[in-house]
Amino acid sequence: MFSLQSSTDSEAVTRASGDASLAPSVAVEAVLQTALQPAQSEGSDYDEVSLPESVVEELGERDRSLEPYERPGLDDDEPQEPWGTGKRWMVGVAVGAGLLAVLLQTLWGWPGWRRRTGDRSAGPLPAPALPAIEQRREEATTQLTALAESLPAVPAGERLDRATLAREAAEPLLRSDDLLDVTGALVLARAGRREVAIALGRARAPYRVCFFDPTHATGSQRAAWRFGDTEVEVPVCRTCRRAIASGRAPETLRVPHRGRLRPYYEDDSVWAETGFGSLTSDLSDLAARVAAERRSR
């Protein structure tokens, strides 16, 4: 331990000085010199002096030269009382401990300094990033192309009519710079393709999106969600259902509003009103409402 090693080294300097105790300034320097020596491994014998012999002799010589001068500052007209051994050790150790603390903190850093510096440089947490609209547009275009290519193989009937309406409502949305419109085009294309799959006997249930984010997995579950003072059941994916059941807010598609991002369903768009089709009766209803909203712009 450092205190044991410091005591051993100070005693060696005291013996070298030939005095009963060290002058305060020499006692301080002895402690500092001990602190600057390489740390000893566990199990080392702290009875061995860690200071080089030359340092011990130099400090001893300095103590002898300071003996006539290091006394308390009394009035020059009054006789000076010699410092007792106890007083010299008390002052020397106190001053040495203080200087040692300053030295070690300078070498290793003040407690909490790095933490406070890091906190200042970190800055505020970034806002959630918006989905890349061009990537969403590319995905919607791919889905619409696949829908258009599949329509000739669908027999006449309600399924073909719904798939065709979905295509017609989605195509103009691809040119929009609104993320919700482009996302809506993707939803309509997927819903249209599901109608084709049902007509061809490859699927059974119509396409239903997750209310919180239409790019999630399909809304195969239902969960209660509060809108103001009203609580309603909405289609959700399994992940959102688990989040709500555990008391956490589900991950939601967000859009800019007055400098911040908010859930899309807090907007007044046709997508908020219909939940991207999750709140409508069927695909025909969604396609008709989207087309009507586009005409009113």
Summarize the structure.
By secondary structure, the protein is mainly alpha-helical. It has 11 helices and 4 strands; from the N terminus they run H-H-H-H-H-H-H-H-E-E-H-E-E-H-H.
Overview of this protein structure:
- This protein is mainly alpha-helical and 297 residues long.
- The chain has 2 domains: 2-69 and 85-106, no CATH class; 133-295, no CATH class.
- The protein contains 11 helices and 4 strands.
- It has helices at residues 2-17, 24-36, 53-66, 85-108, 113-122, 133-150, 158-170, 179-199, 238-245, 270-274, 283-295, and strands at residues 221-227, 230-236, 254-257, 260-263.
- The strands form 2 sheets. The chain has a two-stranded antiparallel ribbon with strand order 1-2.
- Strand 3 and strand 4 (260-263) form a beta hairpin.
- The chain is rod-shaped and about 115 Å long.
- Residues 71-83 and 106-129 have low confidence and may be disordered.
Largest sheet data: 2 strands, antiparallel
Report the mean per-residue pLDDT as an integer: 78
Uncertain runs are 71-83, 106-129
What's the order of the H and E elements?
HHHHHHHHEEHEEHH
| Main sheet strand line-up | 1-2
Task: Count the domains.
Answer: 2
Total beta strand runs: 4
Share in β-strands: 5-15%
Q: What distance lies between the first and last C-alpha atoms, to the nearest angstrom?
A: 80 Å
Question: Could you say which overall geometry the principal axes of the C-alpha atoms support?
Answer: rod-shaped
How much is the radius of gyration in Å? 41 Å
Oligomerization category of the chains in this entry: single chain
Fraction in helix? 40-55%
| Helical run tally | 11
Structural class: mainly alpha
